[in-house]
Amino acid sequence: MNRIGVALAVMLLFLSGCSPISVRTDYDHEVNFSAYKTYRWMPPPKKRAKKSVRKGSLLDTRVRRAVEAELESRGYTVKTSGRADALLAYHVGVRDRIDVEHYGYGYGYWGRRTHVHRYKEGTIVIDIVDPEARQLIWRGAAAGAVGHPQPNPEKVKKAVAKIFEDYPPQ
Predict the structure, then answer these.
(1) Which stretches of the chain are assigned E, i.e. beta strand?
(2) What distance in Å separates the CA atoms of residue 159 and residue 143, rounded to the nearest whole number?
(3) Which domains are present in the chain?
(4) CA–CA separation, 123 vs 45, rounded Å?
(5) What is the per-residue pLDDT for 51?
(6) In terms of C-beta density within 10 A (0-12 exposed, 13-18 middle, 19 or more buried), how is residue 62 classed?
């Protein structure tokens, strides 16, 4: 590999470590979120999707701990049994992504370069459901480049913190 190739590979490794996390949230504007003080995790579906996260896996534990820490810092209490004000569920996914960038100047091939960057994008979706109405009342999602299908605990914490940045909605 020539010097330019090595420099480009090092730059890509550096950039993937500080890639941005994009966040989206949506909620039912008619809901009074101050009425929710306790929550319980929803049980996993009886028929698990082929690529879903197994309960008790490292990723499952990391996501649950990060969500619980964020909600606890906002005054919410997790309940392991009995009635709770809200139910929580989460979903994660990883997919292959490709970014193609053309740069340079000139006519024809001379002076123009194309850079192809292949990476994996991880997504965490967190849902809050009203148990009485059986309705989704809030959803937050974060997506960003991941270096491995099992992201490290700090990346999970950072993504979950960004999802809950504006929770509860005003």
Answers:
(1) 22-27, 38-41, 77-78, 86-104, 112-130, 135-146
(2) 8
(3) 21-163 (3.30.160.670)
(4) 19
(5) 57
(6) buried
Entry pTM: 0.75
Here the tokens at position 153 are 């605990």
pLDDT at 9: 32
What are the tokens at 94?
């990883």
Q: Is the peptide bond before 169 cis (omega within 30 degrees of 0)?
A: no
Pair of tokens at residue 61: 């534990």
Pairs from 130-136 (Cβ < 8 Å, separation ≥ 24): 130/31, 130/86, 130/87, 131/83, 131/84, 131/85, 131/86, 131/87, 135/28, 136/28
Phi, psi torsion values for 32, nearest 5 degrees: -95, 100
Secondary structure of residue 10 in the 3-state scheme: helix
Angle, in degrees to the nearest 10, between helices 153-163 and 58-73: 40
Q: Please answer whether residues 169 and 27 qualify as being in contact, where contact means their C-beta atoms are separated by less than 8 angstroms.
A: yes
Which residues in the chain show pLDDT less than 50? 1-18
